[in-house]
Amino acid sequence: MKRFRRLFEKFIEGILLSSSTITSLTVILIVLFLFREGLGIFNRSPLEHNFIIAVSKQNPVQDLSSDQLKAIFNQDITNWSQVGGKNDSIILFTVNDITNYFTEEELGASLEYLPQKLNEFIVSHPGALMHISDKNLPSDFQGHTIHVKNISVKDFLFGKQWYPTSEPIPSFGIWPMIIGTFLVTLGALLIALPLGLATALFLAEVADIRLRNIVKPLVELLAGIPSVVYGFFGLIVIVPMVQSTFKLDVGETVLAGSLVLGIMALPTIVTIAEDALRTTPRSLKEASLALGATRWQTLRRVTIPYAKSGISAAIILGIGRAIGETMAVLMVTGNASNVPHSFLVPARTLPATIAAELGEAPYGGLHFKALFALGIVLFLFTIMINLTVAYVRNKERK
Amino acid sequence: MIQAEAKNVNFYYGDFHALKDISMTFEPSSVTALIGPSGCGKSTFLRLFNRMNELIGNTRLEGLVTVDGKNIYDKDVQVDEIRKRIGMVFQKPNPFPKSIFENVAYGLRVNGINKKSILDEVVESSLKKAALWEEVKDNLKKSAMALSGGQQQRLCIARALAVEPHLLLMDEPASALDPISTAKVEDLIFELKKQYTIIIVTHNLQQAGRISDYTGFFYLGSLIEHDKTQKMFLNPADERTQSYITGRFG
Question: What is the DSSP letter of A47?
Fold first, then answer.
């Protein structure tokens, strides 16, 4: 009997161990996956798979950056001398242009002479810049391929253009999203902090116990409403309200996102701050009151300082809630990928971008990897927030 | 002359009748000990004198409580003004998580006194009165939480003295302390009674005998007997006092 019980305890221990192993492994694998996919965008050419840029053998230009290529395709740069080559105008050429130079007979019925004609073209046009698939390249190609520089982390973080599907060179600059996320979060905090902290103070110090027992569960209930419902509410109520109040052309703005997020962050801030305020020992409050301090003086000089780190944690967790929120923001901020310069223009946030675009990004492609890289940025933001909370809480314990 | 008085006081926590028709007077510069078994109402009675019972909801008071001849429950009385004149020391040392200096200065600061020279002076004199000055004078900026339990309690006494109260309420001030710290606090009370009227709740009968001039024995919400301490301990009038003092219950 005793042996059986010991065996049984070993068995339970095994289950606990394996559960925790599975949990930790899952977390680690997800993070690894995120980084593997996301970092992929930085160590490959920004051209779509199989496509290359080629020029004549006489052309001394060896490599170009994505920005230079974009400028060339937009015809902002029209001469090779602008990118370090000879003084010769650039002739843009893609496969679709081939019929401008050769007849269909010359190319053959199933384009079997295409590689050969590409060779002829590059020899006869020293100023050409070809954007072609390497499948069409002849084995004895007379030109040389241009090395297109990888997207740098700096371009990714601080680039102002987000055109993930533009041809031939997409733009992956997430600065508008970083600023969008920052502004929406900042606005949400400006709304939620005064309201949330005041509510917490009211519930912890002013309200009598019966009122508190009604209001606090109500506020906590706010946290349980699915975010898509908040988004819907925002779309139907807040967006038109913002539009008519500020006489805007569109109501889907940073402000609308901030309002919705502010409401969503309230339960977090109220609950945690109120709990923190209530941890202040009664003996300290009594000591203060017994010395003739008024209730407000006691609150300001004893209760709030005592609960300071808990209140900070509430604020930071509120930020975390706002930064990571996806659905509601996606529905009310208008999702324009420009850098917002005020609260009354549309913007998009990091999580909303991922949610909106992942469905249409081809698996494993550049766009796909770029969205994962967005995920990494978001992950780093939230991990920073969580570490700050841990730090603040730790300080509280000391 | 009478410093503080309770007249026909009844007190209720909700339906619970906690104090039953209690009348008691306190003379200036005297120490009165309130004794009795747990739950007898002595702490509740003590807390009537600085209206601390009001912090708990759903209570009711009948009768008259006066300090310096003024009914402290009058409608026109500001409760924080009353509390400034009545110091209180609690059962467990409860210094604020601030520096030693700021703990003592707290009562002045909430009164709007922030002048450094006044604060310095009051902090020093209060700490001296509480017999703590010599131990902490070089570390006034140190956190009060770093002091020992006995030092913390004397700091709390200094904090109460800093606002120059007329009446000092002590709710088992030595019950959480070791014997040496207890002795120090008792010596201190002996010193303080020259200047202050002190009401002290205690579980410790020897302590009541050592430090008090008068003793009130509470039992089940009633004041059974109130007399000179010597008389109470040597020749109590009531049989229940006799039983309690000789340790037959409690």
Answer: S
Of A281, A289, A301, the CB nearest to B83: A289
Q: Report ipTM (2 d.p.).
A: 0.90
Distance from CA of A203 to the nearest CA of B (A): 15
- Continuous segment of H or E residues that includes residue B218: strand B214-219
- Distance CA(A153)–CA(A156), nearest Å, equals 5
Interface test with A, best of B43, B106, B169, B199 (most A CBs within 10 A): B106
Read off the pLDDT of residues B143-176 as tens digits, 9 standing for 90 and up. Answer: 999 999 889 999 999 999 999 898 999 999 888 8
B247 touches chain A (CB under 8 A): no
- Do B83 and A301 count as a contact with CB atoms less than 8 A apart? no
Q: Please name the residue that has the structure tokens 């007849």.
A: A103
Summarize pLDDT for A158-198 with one digit per residue, the tens.
988 898 888 778 889 999 999 999 999 999 999 999 999 99
- Class of residue A20 by CB neighbours under 10 A (exposed 0-12, middle 13-18, buried 19+): exposed
Pick from B67, B79, B80 the residue to mutate for testing the A interface (most A CBs within 10 Å).
B80
- Any idea which fold B86-165 has? Rossmann fold (3.40.50)
How far does A22 lie from chain B, in Å, by closest CA? 43
Give the residue on B whose Cα is nearest the Cα of A287: B94
- Please tell me whether residues A74 and A142 are part of one structural domain: yes
CATH code at position A111: 3.40.190.10
Tens digit of each residue's pLDDT (9 = 90 or more) over B83-119: 988 999 999 999 999 999 999 999 999 989 999 999 9
* Residue of A208, A288, A306 lying closest to B97 (CB–CB): A306
Query: Would you say B22 and B9 are in contact if contact means Cβ atoms under 8 Å apart?
Result: yes
Sign of CA dihedral A327, A330, A333, A337: positive
- Specify whether A343 is located in the same domain as A213: yes
Q: Does B145 touch chain A (CB under 8 A)?
A: no
**Residues forming beta bridges with residue B33, ordered by sequence position:** B200, B215
